[in-house]
Amino acid sequence: MKISLKLGLWFSVCILLIEIVSMTYLHRNLVHSRVHQELDHLQATGNSQRDILEINSDSHTLSHIKLLGLHSDTQVVVTNTNGEVILTSIKINSSINDILNIPISNSKLPRNGKIIQSDWKSEQYISTVTAFNQNGKEFGYVYMFKNTADVQKLISQLNKHMIVASLLILFSVLIFIFFLSKALTKPLITMKEATKKLSKGDFTVTLPKPSNDELGELSEAIQTLANDLNYLKQERNEFLASISHELRTPLTYINGYADIARRPNLDEKDRVQYLEIIREESQRVSSLLKELFELAKLDQNTFSINKEKVNFCNYIHSIYERVLPAFKNKGIQLILDCRDNIFINLDPIRFEQVLINLLDNCLKYSKESSTTSVSVIEEYGILQLTIKDKGVGIPVEDLPHIFDRLYRVDKSRSRATGGFGLGLAIVKQLVEAHGGNITVESQVGEGTCFTIVLKR
């Protein structure tokens, strides 16, 4: 069943229940109000007749009251205190007689009279009674009657109006629900079609944001997912192309020089040279595969971070002493600034990979006679490690991607600088595995600054 039909049915059922309850309540109150209006009218008419009789109750007045009753939809019966009929504008039948025989005590009868018969459904008449006096003494009663057929006719007309109104409301609501369900489900259907495309590998979907509500947020989330999947697809293709390129080059060297080295008439000195090239290229392939396996472990969380309490300045000083000869050999000054006893929990082996990778980049891309500085500061329980060089720098357009896998600023893939574009990707994941964050700032020709922030 389509969602538009489901929504329409749910809305219809809910609105129908609401309409039934509200219309039942409204009908009951309208009927009750209408019947009480008739009873109040009867009582008011009886009070009016009482006032006339208390002023003058001669035969002329009585005939006038009778005449009014004959030409009205309300009938009047006047009796004395003994129950004898003085005046009637209607033929007294058994129903009227039963009402007249209801015992009435004048002392308990209110001045404005009371209702003695209000059952309009099963009785022939509704009725009120009002007492009137003569010369300060009780003299009789004024009974007012109205045929319930008239009341039932009014209620029947009211019922017809209620039914017509209910049908009009229901029809209007159904039309409203139809367009509302279409308006609500249209973006959902669009999203469904978009997810179908995504499931088939087509990530080039564009979804408009219908509104600033949950549907808009869902549309925006699907669009973000599509963009991310499209980016991942492109990244995967570039990753496979890069891996293919990185493997093809050394394997080509290995195969080519292996064929040459197999020649029987080859000079021994040349053979050794070719075998050395084969060894270097095989080491290059081995190094690439090692980094790929390392990255795969990070992705699958199969590697372990074994943290221990480390005096960070002593720890980084030992790494500084290890890499210092390589920097001196290239004529680069390496400066370390870490003077405090800062203790922090980290994995010494894993974090050493981070530092060696970053310092190796500084070594590769810095010119002779330049300076590379490593500084550590600690404030409010936050450790900040900064590694800054005066190298070639990174273009602005490349900065957002330098932590991507196999991304290299050097598009020529120079074998002189080495590297596969995996080092910084590994660095970023290892830093995040320690609960930290790494950022980079750079200007072409000015150098690059990596900043790692760790919580103590």
Automatic annotation (TrEMBL):
Domain of life: Bacteria
PANTHER family (UniProt xref): SENSOR HISTIDINE KINASE CPXA (PTHR45528:SF1)
Native source organism of the sequence: Neobacillus driksii
UniProt KW keywords: ATP-binding, Cell membrane, Kinase, Membrane, Nucleotide-binding, Phosphoprotein, Transferase, Transmembrane, Transmembrane helix, Two-component regulatory system
Keyword Transmembrane helix found: yes
The enzyme's E.C. designation: 2.7.13.3
Protein name: histidine kinase
Spans through the membrane: 7-26, 162-181
Swiss-Prot/TrEMBL catalytic activity: ATP + protein L-histidine = ADP + protein N-phospho-L-histidine
Entry membrane topology: Multi-pass membrane protein
Gene Ontology terms for molecular function: ATP binding
HAMP domain sequence ranges: 182-234
Domain Histidine kinase: 242-456
Main location: membrane
Subcellular location: Cell membrane
First-tier enzyme category under EC: transferase
